[in-house]
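Human:
If only I could read backbone structure tokens as easily as an amino acid sequence. I am handing you a single protein, as its sequence and its fold in token form. I hope you can help me see how the letters and the tokens relate. Thank you; the sequence and its tokens follow:
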Amino acid sequence: MSLEESLSAVEQLIEQVSAALLAADPTSLEKNSAALRDAAADFSRALEQAAARGLPLPASLQKRADAIRSMLILHRESLARLAASTDRQAAGLLPPNAAATYGDGLGARGAAPGVARIYRSAG
């Protein structure tokens, strides 16, 4: 795959990921994010092959790659804000509970923590 083709694939998938983020469509976001990761890996391999042949990256492709980098930074920040918002919403629905889920670990007899029953005296 050529640099141009692989870069175009990345650009198309970034647009699809953006649309999925705006639509709050988790299924589409997951599918397109995985495809974007694969397309980015393909583009990276194409860059490495071009560099191995001594071909410089054309200025037009460099500008497009910079635009993709900027878009990915925006996506990362948007996802971080979305995750923080989701955490706040979950904390509002499920308030923190200081008690242990399965009890306090003392058992029915109130044994000292860290002391096995076998070592306690009967009585």
In short: The chain has a mean pLDDT of 83. The radius of gyration is 27 Å. Helices lie at 3-23, 26-52, 59-93. The CA atoms of residues 46 and 98 lie 53 Å apart.
